[in-house]
Amino acid sequence: MPNDYLYGANVVLAALLAQRRRLVRAHVQTRAPQLLGRRAPPMRPDMAAIMDLIQERNVPVRTRDRFELDELSDGRPHNGIVLEVSPLDIPYLKSLDRPSQSDSTWPPLWLYLDGIQDPQNLGAILRTSHFLGVSGVAIAERGSANPATPAVSKASAGALEMMRNVCLVSSGLTLVKEAKKDGWRILGAAKRPAVAGERAGGEGGSAHAKQTLVLIGNEHKGIRSSLLPLIDEYVWVRPSHAPTASLVHDPALAVVDEDPVESLNVSVATAIILSHLLGQRQSPVVHVE
């Protein structure tokens, strides 16, 4: 398989620290002031740490100009560093572990991402999951963005490189069925509450008492219908204002039937839901000093 090119200081630093890939070569931008005989500006602390690790790991270095790095990173921001590495191996997950009653730690909380197609959304969710301490993230193999790409790693700010429990799932229905049978609480993220047949979980309930699997659906279609009967409770982010029935009252102009900003981006909504569920374990989440 062809090598990947990781770009951006955070991602490169994470890959060097995690050591989950074969390190092929570091492509580093030429520092123009030095070439012109002028004093170079101080190196950023993260770049200094990266260069130390590159030397420590015996990674070959090749200097490049900015335009060459732009090409390696497909025109995306690279901070003057691109790391050539082997592809990341994402394992497959068949089932979640059966919870142990003797476990003294907090019950696990996993995410199941059911068809997140935008690499930016996927990366942002992984970043939040890593930051807040989610136990693991399972990703539907079909209908999802490929998680093992430089674009997702960049969007995750390197979290993809650090997380050991990011897995692919070939059958989400089997995973959720088995989890429910083994005593996991199944939560479904909903765009809005009070849809007929939904069991409303209000503002998310408590993540203290039981191992929890949170289902996050596709950006447009939501959670696929085959999984809906398995959901114990729904969670959503309540807006600060009441839903607007119509923004335009003139029938001749009524092309918008509801508030176009009535919901959040899936990665933002996931972050708020996780902050609520996991924040109850070490309240408060936000500290003001």
UniProtKB/TrEMBL annotation:
<protein>
    <recommendedName>
        <fullName>rRNA methyltransferase 1, mitochondrial</fullName>
    </recommendedName>
</protein>
<feature type="domain" description="RNA 2-O ribose methyltransferase substrate binding">
    <location>
        <begin position="5"/>
        <end position="91"/>
    </location>
</feature>
<dbReference type="InterPro" id="IPR001537">
    <property type="entry name" value="SpoU_MeTrfase"/>
</dbReference>
<dbReference type="GO" id="GO:0016435">
    <property type="term" value="F:rRNA (guanine) methyltransferase activity"/>
</dbReference>
<keyword id="KW-0489">Methyltransferase</keyword>
<dbReference type="InterPro" id="IPR029064">
    <property type="entry name" value="Ribosomal_eL30-like_sf"/>
</dbReference>
<keyword id="KW-0496">Mitochondrion</keyword>
<keyword id="KW-0809">Transit peptide</keyword>
<dbReference type="InterPro" id="IPR029026">
    <property type="entry name" value="tRNA_m1G_MTases_N"/>
</dbReference>
<dbReference type="Pfam" id="PF00588">
    <property type="entry name" value="SpoU_methylase"/>
</dbReference>
<keyword id="KW-0808">Transferase</keyword>
<dbReference type="GO" id="GO:0003723">
    <property type="term" value="F:RNA binding"/>
</dbReference>
<dbReference type="InterPro" id="IPR013123">
    <property type="entry name" value="SpoU_subst-bd"/>
</dbReference>
<dbReference type="InterPro" id="IPR047182">
    <property type="entry name" value="MRM1"/>
</dbReference>
<dbReference type="InterPro" id="IPR029028">
    <property type="entry name" value="Alpha/beta_knot_MTases"/>
</dbReference>
<dbReference type="Pfam" id="PF08032">
    <property type="entry name" value="SpoU_sub_bind"/>
</dbReference>
<dbReference type="GO" id="GO:0005739">
    <property type="term" value="C:mitochondrion"/>
</dbReference>
